[in-house]
Amino acid sequence: MVALVRGVHGLRGAVRVEVLTDRPEERFIPGAVLHREGSDAPLTIASAEAIPDGPGWRLRFDEVADRSAADALRETYLEAATEASDALPVGEYYWHQVVGATVRDLQDRPIGVVHDVYRVGGAEVFVVRGEPYGEFDLPVVRAFIRIFAPARGEIVVDVDALALEPAKPPRPPRAPRAQKATRRRPRVAAAEPAPEPSAESSAEPPAGP
Q1: How far is residue 99's CA from residue 103's CA, in Å, rounded to a whole number?
Q2: Distance between CA atoms of 88 and 84, rounded to whole angstroms?
Q3: 115 in Cβ contact with 128 (< 8 Å)
Q4: Domains in the chain and their CATH numbers?
Q5: Which of 163, 159, 167, 155 minimizes the C-alpha distance to 103?
Q6: Measured distance CA(156)–CA(126) in Å, rounded
Q7: pLDDT averaged over 10-residue windows placed end to end, the chain, 209 residues
Q8: Phi, psi values for residue 195, rounded to 5°
Q9: 61 contacts 44 by C-beta, under 8 angstroms
Q10: CA torsion, points 81, 85, 89, 91, in degrees to nearest 10?
């Protein structure tokens, strides 16, 4: 991996890339051929320049003619074919050589596999997934990594130094609570008020003869 496309620039197909190589001046020269990750289709560099007001480089490819085609490259890793002259010093590896390596603890127990690599500042970080810790970030520093041997697919780490804790299992979905039957109390009708006596019923009966 030599670059990660972060965005597009203008209408003529230029892309802005995050640099993932230590030799951008050698990798990003007109005529050099890159490849989209997982593809053999060439991306021939037509022009390249370091962005003066920010990190990264701006690249244009012969095969990318407009903004729409450039937008399809967004968040895509770009690769360069390695040659004999690209051999790294002993102990150094390309990212694609690290992805897939098994990560073990100091007791030689597997705890995951490297699924991705990204860079923070000048340091690399491995994204590891597996049991019993789930997904975690592994900074590539000596304090955490005791054995680094991707050539044989092995990385040994100090779990205590990383302060890893077992991932919590997902909660099982809660069963829906049964609705309680609503008991309807018998309705008591209000007592009707007694009718007030009328003037006729309250009058005294007339005296007899």
Answers
A1: 11
A2: 10
A3: yes
A4: 3-86 (2.40.30.60), 95-162 (2.30.30.240)
A5: 155
A6: 13
A7: 89 91 87 89 94 87 95 91 58 77 94 88 86 93 90 90 84 65 49 48 46
A8: -65, 140
A9: yes
A10: 30
Structure tokens at 32: 């050099």
C-alpha distances (whole Å) from 193 to each of 129, 166, 186, 196 are: 80, 74, 21, 9
Q: What DSSP string describes 42-79?
A: EEEEEEEEE-TTSSSEEEEETT--SHHHHHTTTT-EEE
As given in the structure block, the two tokens for residue 73 are 């490259």
Question: Which two structure tokens, joined as six digits, stand for 169?
Answer: 């299992």
Q: Which helix (H) or strand (E) holds 157?
A: strand 154-157
132 preceded by cis ω (within 30°)?
yes
Total-model pTM: 0.51
The residue count for the chain: 209
Tokens in use for 150? 């991707």
Q: Name the E strands within 66-151.
A: 77-79, 102-104, 110-120, 123-130, 134-139, 145-149
Comparing CA positions, the residue from 135, 136, 160 lying closest to residue 146 is 160
Give ∠ CA 45-50-55 in degrees, rounded to 5. Answer: 125
